[in-house]
Predict the structure of MTMR5 protein.
Amino acid sequence: QLVAYEVKRMRAEEGNKQKILRHIKELAEKLYKNENPYPAVTMHKVQKPTEGCHLRLHQKPFPHLDEGTVQWIIDQATAKLQTAPPAVKAEKKCMVPSGPPIAAIMERNGNALANSARRLEVVRNCISYVFENKMLEAKKLFPAVLRAMKGRAARHCLTQELNLHVQQNRAVLDHQQFDFVIRMMNCCLQDCTAMDEHGIAAALLPLVTAFCRKLSPGITQFAYSCVQEHV
């Protein structure tokens, strides 16, 4: 329905934050009402007793419950349930016109795609600089890389690039390289959602057991020791 009816309105609102926010709020209310057709029943929370409360003196005895009152409350609730509307909302089917051609929407997304491509390029360049020991250039790009990790495409790109370097037998790093790689991995995992668990997080698993640094003769530290706290 948005694509069919709201495109003109969305274009008219571009650049006006207040109008956009109002529109988003309206949409949010519609979606919320769709998911929650009936008002939620308030649940009474029963507080847990505090630790050591059983050791206290002068405990009041539990009051005697009146059987008639309890039964009356149960009967009231049962009567309410019988008159309650059905829990499942009947679906109303309707035809939605196709709206403007997809090309019109794709044009508007063109800038976003270009931005995404630039972000991936920044991630690739930064990783190349780290492995080529061009630390000054890597430092300049690093803040942009950490910002890019908010997007799934950039996180996926990081795992692919690091995997290429492992395949080229470049897994043993010096201290500075190790620090850069760990910070990128940590940032990537920090921004991962439950949806990334079997994709990005799983792709990082073999990498964190490959990348390492020599701390002293005979002692090697692997990357997993620095990133294993993530859920």
Notes: The chain is about 60% helix and 5% strand. The chain has a mean pLDDT of 80. The beta strands are 172-173, 212-216, 219-222. The radius of gyration is 29 Å.
